[in-house]
Specification:
25% of the residues lie in helices and 36% in strands. It is an alpha+beta fold. Among the domains are: 93 residues, no CATH class; 226 residues, YVTN repeat-like/Quinoprotein amine dehydrogenase (Methylamine Dehydrogenase, Chain H, 7 Propeller), CATH 2.130.10.10. The strands form 8 sheets. It has a 4-stranded antiparallel β-sheet with strand order 4-31-30-29, with no helix packed on it. Strands 5-6-7-8 form a 4-stranded antiparallel β-sheet, with no helix packed on it. A 4-stranded antiparallel β-sheet has the order 9-10-11-12, with no helix packed on it.
């Protein structure tokens, strides 16, 4: 981005224009503006006007994006408020109609509470002579006074029962929708103005309720890959790009490819040549844009940014002592955790990424890492069969607890709500770890999977499991209360599985072939 700044000269060297700014805290105003003739060796925190301008523009863009998101949230809250009004009006109508039916049935009862017939029914064989006479007299009176109406009354009873069934069905429908609100699954109602209120079509509402049960992944595309090995595939936020990292292509010095997914069609966009000198084992997209990281066995991490002519290197993150096997970006997008024999933590400062800390508590090698929802905790699984949980305190990551003696090395780990964890071990066990206030975890086995090769979609809580020795790829929903629930099985073998963050796209890799499955029915 080019920037033409204001033309003004340095006060000390009046023939030279101001081109540098000093950002040191507490400086007087006249010491902040410098030219190239000033004594720069005694200065710190110097930046060009262009750099500061780009920094300010970047912050402005980010803040505008945040405000747009907040405005959309505000509109959605207004929709929720209107929907609550519809619910209240609908409830009032249900209550009124139910009370009318109750009063009508009560008024037309032949047998009233504690009358002669009711008394004999209650006492049965204990009824005395006078009560039995009263039963006969009341029954005779009912027949005499209503001989021409009894058949009609029976018909009315049938009609009232039908009306009651209809009301009970509508009450049950309202209860189900409120349960969906409690389960954080109400977005499909809020975003779809046709749902439930005020038309109240039961069949339509039942179909719209099937958020998980209605998920059906359909095969949409297939590509044959040149790589002998695939280590990672990541989708961007909009699911229209994905990056493949693997072994070197046969006829070029390329370990990374960029592909486009659009209208159920897949096409290659760019080979990133002459970038790494070893297999690329991990990829991580930025949370705000289509920039991404690639981690390689050559120990380097490259940060890629989109330019008009394609994706180019923006920064090379060096000084790792061994190959990179995993990358995880914090939810806020400002901290990158690189998994190797140690965990290398990089933080974004202005426009650059700077290494801020190295975690090396594992006795062997770290294998996976994840951040919790507010980025205050970090969990890492290791080949030494331990899980290490860190907390961010006073600008540093501090080891809080170690979950010891797992049955095998930890291949995958993720936080659920609060600080509870789910991990997949190399012996195919999937374990749940419940957090206790004393920084301890109680563990229990959830299930045995078909493979330890899994992919997790955080937004939908979907866990896709490779087929292993079986003939189908399984998709589960991970629930903190209900454990592991099978959502669907895809009749296809897979050695490795990859999924988008929202769970709408799944890629299955086997025999150098990549198959894509899409769930276009999912509602969020």
């Amino acid at each position: 981005m080019s920037f033409i700044g204001p033309r003004m000269n340095c006060q000390l060297h009046q023939k030279y224009p101001i081109s540098l700014l000093n950002l040191t805290k507490g400086l007087s105003k006249e010491k902040r503006l410098l030219c190239t003739r000033c004594n720069l060796q005694l200065q710190q925190n110097l930046y060009s006007i262009e750099e500061i301008f780009e920094f300010a523009v970047s912050i402005s863009k980010s803040e505008k994006e945040q405000m747009e998101i907040l405005k959309k949230d505000k509109d959605q809250l207004a929709q929720i408020k209107n929907l609550l009004g519809y619910i209240q009006a609908y409830y009032n109508k249900l209550e009124f109609e139910h009370q009318q039916l109750f009063d009508q049935v009560l008024k037309n009862l032949f047998i009233k509470q504690n009358d002669s017939i009711d008394t004999c029914i209650q006492k049965k064989q204990q009824s005395d002579r006078n009560e039995l006479i009263g039963l006969a007299e009341q029954a005779s009176l009912i027949i005499k006074q209503n001989s021409d109406k009894i058949e009609l009354q029976e018909n009315n009873s049938i009609q009232q029962l039908a009306k009651l069934d209809e009301l009970r069905g509508r009450i049950k429908l309202l209860q189900d929708q409120l349960k969906m609100v409690n389960n954080d699954q109400s977005q499909s109602i809020i975003l779809n103005q046709k749902a439930l209120y005020p038309k109240l079509d039961p069949v339509q509402v039942i179909q719209q309720k099937k958020i998980v049960e209605g998920s059906e992944f359909i095969r949409i595309a297939e590509i044959q890959l040149e790589q002998q090995k695939i280590y990672d595939i990541k989708f961007n936020r909009d699911n229209n790009l994905f990056i493949i990292g693997g072994s070197k292509l046969k006829n070029s010095n390329c370990y990374v490819q960029i592909w486009k997914y659009e209208n159920d069609q897949v096409s290659k966009m760019q080979d990133l040549e002459n970038c790494h000198s070893g297999d690329v084992k991990s990829i991580c997209f930025s949370s705000q844009e289509d920039s991404f990281f690639t981690g390689s066995q050559d120990t380097t991490i490259i940060y890629w940014k989109m330019e008009p002519q394609g994706w180019n290197k923006s920064q090379v993150l060096q000084d790792q002592s061994s190959g990179i096997i995993g990358l995880q970006l914090s939810n806020k997008g400002n901290v990158l955790a690189a998994v190797s024999n140690s965990i290398y933590l990089w933080k974004r400062e202005l426009k650059q990424w700077e290494k801020v800390q190295v975690l090396n508590h594992s006795k062997k090698q770290y294998l996976c890492v994840c951040f919790n929802n507010d980025d205050s905790y970090l969990a890492a699984g290791s080949s030494d069969c331990q899980i290490y949980v860190y907390q961010y305190q006073n600008g540093q990551w501090i080891l809080k607890t170690t979950i010891q003696d797992q049955s095998q090395e930890i291949n995958f780990i993720t936080f659920l709500q609060d600080l509870n964890l789910v991990a997949v071990l190399k012996d195919n066990f999937i374990n749940y770890y419940e957090y206790s206030p004393n920084n301890w975890y109680d563990s229990k086995k959830l299930s045995t999977l078909s493979s330890f090769q899994v992919s997790y979609s955080k937004q939908s809580n979907f866990l896709t499991v490779a087929s292993g020795k079986q003939k189908e790829t399984l998709i589960y929903q991970v629930d903190q209360r209900d454990g592991l629930k099978k959502v669907q099985q895809i009749q296809a073998k897979s050695d490795q599985v990859y999924s988008s963050n929202d769970g709408k796209l799944i890629a299955l890799f086997a025999n150098q072939k990549l198959e894509f499955y899409s769930d276009q029915n999912m509602l969020y």
